[in-house]
Amino acid sequence: MTAAATDSSEPGPGELAPAPPSVELEKISPGAEFPPPAARTDGGGLSTAPSSRSVLRKSRTDNFLEKGALLLRALACLFSLIALAVLASNKHGDWQDFDRYQEYRYLLAIAVLAFIYSMAQILRQVNRSRTGKDFVAAQYSWIVDFAGDQVMAYLLMSASSAAIPITNHMREAVINMFTDASAAAISMAFLAFVALALSALISGFKVSKQNYI
Predict the structure, then answer these.
(1) What are the distances in angstroms from CA 157 to CA 35, 45, 114, 162?
(2) Dihedral sign of CA atoms 56, 201, 150, 208 in order
(3) Which one, 49, 148, 153, 193, has least CB within 10 Å?
(4) Per-residue pLDDT at 13
């Protein structure tokens, strides 16, 4: 019985084993650029890379809030101007002069302040949107907006509330051009209060989103 033939690939006695095939490695130059790594995913399969959709959504939200605040301050400026114009011209002689009553004088003063404040904020906001620069330091900008809107809204509500009782008392006795003009001025001041109160909500939301809060 003959012995099984040996595998031809195995070296025979006295022969050296063949060298393993060489693997050529690609040389990488020091300045070569590598492709960006693929976005990692967590256990739920959600990508941890920043989403362009979220950035776009945030930009749209900021733009909407900026335009909303500008519109509300423009309305507050308009209502305040109407209130002070109607009240300042409400002079019909004798007891029908607004400056005889401290409540109406107080309302006129607050309407003037609200008009000046709203106009200043409009100019400041327009300048910021056009040039990218603000008259107030960036870290205090939204706080100034929030505090200013709140203070002016409170003053308008206070002035309107002070003028309502005396106006109602006069209208119980007589209804004429003087009492109608007084009621119209109070209504305009109240609408200005509503506009600035809504603007204060937007400013408060912006303040809550700042990193330093």
Answers:
(1) 62, 53, 11, 9
(2) negative
(3) 49
(4) 57
Burial of 110 (0-12, 13-18, 19+ CB in 10 A): buried
Sign of the Cα torsion 105, 110, 116, 119 reads negative
Query: What residues are paired with 91 via a beta bridge?
Result: 97
Tokens of 103: 């409540």
Cα R_g (the chain), whole angstroms: 38
CB-count burial class (<10 Å; 0-12, 13-18, 19+) for 80: buried
pTM for this model (two decimals): 0.69
What are the start-end ranges of the E strands in 33-181?
A: none
Distance from C-alpha of 183 to C-alpha of 167, rounded to nearest angstrom: 7
Nearest CA to 153 out of 201, 108, 85, 84 is that of 201
SS3 178: helix
At 124-148, the pLDDT tens digits run 888 888 887 777 766 677 788 889 9
Q: How far apart are CA 145 and CA 138, in angstroms?
A: 12
Q: 91 — phi, psi (to 5°)?
A: -130, 115
Q: Is 212 exposed, middle or buried (0-12, 13-18, 19+ CB in 10 A)?
A: exposed
